[in-house]
Specification:
Layout: H1 27-34, E1 43-47, H2 54-65, E2 68-71, E3 86-89, H3 98-114, E4 118-122, H4 134-141, E5 144-147, H5 153-166, H6 175-182, H7 187-204, H8 210-219
Parallel strand pairs: 1-4, 1-5, 2-3, 3-4
Helix pairs in contact: 1-2, 5-6, 5-7, 6-8, 7-8
Length: 225
């Protein structure tokens, strides 16, 4: 059978406040982001597994506060200055990088002196980040902390439904319940499986069915559980 070539268009993540779906797994973190002007010591740590919504909430906060977002691994002492709100993503990535840790330590001090907020993210709770610079770890430990959990069934189903709707896809009624029980439990995985189903459905000129979803998960074409 001839296949139709789909256009490999990059998908743009929807990272606005209205795009964030609230559930018990993330409600506290969202409330902390919404009330960012009341953070203890003007600092907050967001922790949670990959795909739990940390990056989304970081962008929500940046839009509200005007913050710049920096990957922790890109930190260096020459770039550090107090210029407004700052978000540092994936801080545990620099656990073995003394130069980046020193830069983050100085950023803490500068933000405090300038009364500017600082947001940090990582997969594990901050007490487990194990920074080799003790003064940095103590400053991280002093920050407020909000943990995000992996999405529950209801939230994951809602995210899948939205992703299908965004692509103007109407999967068979049993597709989303099947995916919820068989796929990797993260927002990132939901995005990848919907993208893969869209591309395969278009190429084969077939609807999105449970059988197609099972086929892609079995082949490893999409992220499984």
């Amino acid at each position: 059978m001839a296949t139709q070539l789909g256009l490999d268009l990059p998908a743009r993540a929807a990272l606005g406040r209205d795009d964030f779906m609230v559930a018990p797994s993330n409600a506290l973190a969202l409330a902390m982001i919404d009330n960012w002007t009341s953070w203890p010591l003007n600092k907050l740590v967001l922790s949670g597994p990959d795909g739990s919504g940390k990056t989304h909430l970081t962008h929500v906060w940046a839009a509200a506060s005007g913050a710049q977002i920096i990957a922790a691994r890109d930190l260096n002492p020459h770039m550090i200055e107090a210029s407004g709100p700052v978000a540092i993503e994936d801080v545990p990535d620099i656990a073995g990088d003394m130069a980046a840790q020193t830069a983050l330590f100085h950023l803490h001090n500068l933000q405090h002196a300038a009364n500017q907020p600082l947001l940090m993210t990582g997969t594990l709770p901050p007490s487990l980040w194990r920074m080799s610079l003790p003064d940095l770890q103590s400053r991280i430990d002093a920050a407020g902390h909000a943990a995000l959990d992996a999405p529950d069934d209801k939230l994951l189903a809602a995210v899948l439904a939205k992703l299908f709707n965004d692509r103007q896809l109407t999967p068979r009624p049993d597709v989303i319940p099947y995916l919820v029980t068989h796929m990797e439990r993260s927002f990132d995985a939901a995005g990848r499986i919907v993208t893969a189903l869209d591309a395969t459905s278009l190429a084969r000129k077939k609807p999105v069915t449970r059988a197609l979803a099972a086929e892609l998960l079995d082949k490893g074409t999409a992220p499984g559980g």
